[in-house]
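[job 0412] stage=fold_complex status=start
inputs:
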Amino acid sequence: MSSPLALVFIGASVLFILGIKFLSSPKTARLGNLVAAAGMLVALLALHKPEGGSVWLSGWNTNFTLIIVGIVVGLGIGALGAYSVKMTAMPQMVALFNGLGGGAAALVGGLEFMHGTHGGLPAFIAGAMLFATLIGSLSFSGSAIAYLKLEGKFERPLTFPGQNFVNGLILLAILTLCGWLTFNSTGSAAIAILAVVAVLALIFGVAMVMPIGGADMPVVISLLNSFTGLAVAADGFAINNLAMIVAGTLVGSSGTLLTLLMCKAMNRPVTNVLFGAFGSGSAAKGGGEGVTGTIKPIQADEAAVLLAYAQRVVVVPGYGMAVAQAQHQVRELSDELGQRGVEVQFAIHPVAGRMPGHMNVLLAEANVPYDQLCEMEAINPSMDRVDVCLVIGANDVVNPAAREDKSSPIYGMPIIDADHSKTVIVMKRSMAAGFAGIENHLFYRDNTRMLFGDAKASLNELVTAVKAN
Amino acid sequence: MDTNVLFIFILSVFVGFEVISKVPSMLHTPLMSGTNAIHGIILFGGILVLAGADSLLVQVLGFVAVVFGSANVFGGFMVTDRMLQMFRKKKSQ
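[job 0412] stage=fold_complex status=done
writing structure:
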């Protein structure tokens, strides 16, 4: 690599690092994304072939036409996905883009390996290509399953006896074949075995994600995101592209740390998320005992009176608010109460919704002022001075079983102490158990009233009723 | 193999860990989405494979890789920007 070109790639790497750095602070996050994008554009324009010569100035031929068409088609798909997706479906979109990246990484690794089978490859290079094919394929199929789970298809974990044994067997087969290929990368037999490895890796990706409950998908997507980064870095080694090595590795390591941070926010070790089959048959039944009391429904007009004459109201939003697209109605209600002199705050659990930060994004979209949003740790000490706690489509994050019931699968998870407030109004579509499949003790408390119905419709009724008071 | 490359790899691992060690939970999703866009650099790999394609099979699969990579990188940055736009709007109020 000539030195001016090397400087360009050093510059691009610095922009990636700064971009990620800026992304981790609310003030600079948007800038950070743009900085990283600028780094990507610079590196793309400076892209050279391994044998030298700019990709863009090497003359027009069929392959070059295909490259341009491919980029434009991908740009179209990406823009359509990014701008048409509803804010509530953001997690799915990230999973989808991650899967595509994984698929591309697998194809690049596989094709480079195929190319190398003509003359044989050094073991290190063959290993890197195989790693990219294997991890990329796994990330592709795993992300696809995560996408479907977030879309509401087979949300429940799928488990069967001996599952870990079968998965282990698939993994062993993959590793054995890859080990053999690393040192025997010549001839068409190698290509056939590579195809088998790719197919097994696709199956393993599905098998790995299927037993994990839908509520844990953010952690899974974060993990697969870091996997894709590592696959890209391996491709970088294989085709000797420094920008790919640096960018892929940065994503791999920061993604791994982010995955651990997410698990920490739920107070669960990462192994428990991946192999615990959280919310599966046996676990879901645990914690069901010890529920005493009865469900006490409430009507919207009665709930409106409670809210209108309260001094302090705390709203706990959850995934139900996202599904019902009710964030604008929530803001309307909060404005209406605010005008009457009621102090309204929003308590945001770190893992409310299906992605950390999900609720912040939705409420921000509805123009809820930033200073009304409170983090769980900040609001919990004063929950006993709250007159009405309005729980909108949140379930597991307000379940007191996490504090009290040692047999509950969510025991130890930090929760918002909604039950400490004087009255709790839970807005819920039906009495179905939460995403994790655990009975919620809160619903049976003496100070809890259930307001059944679609969150959006109920909130509209509440707004009208509060106005009438 | 070139040990310099391995050197860069190892340093990148540590930089990646250090750079996000203090991220608040509200930014977990945008950060994940932003890093997701950065690994879209796999587009480069797709372009290089396709540029050197010498058979129909490689052309077809290389084309798919370019489309996937392109969607990952462009879509990734755009979707992240859309998320973060929300965060900025409320501060300006």
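[job 0412] summary: Chain B touches chain A through 80 residues (CB under 8 Å).
[job 0412] exit 0
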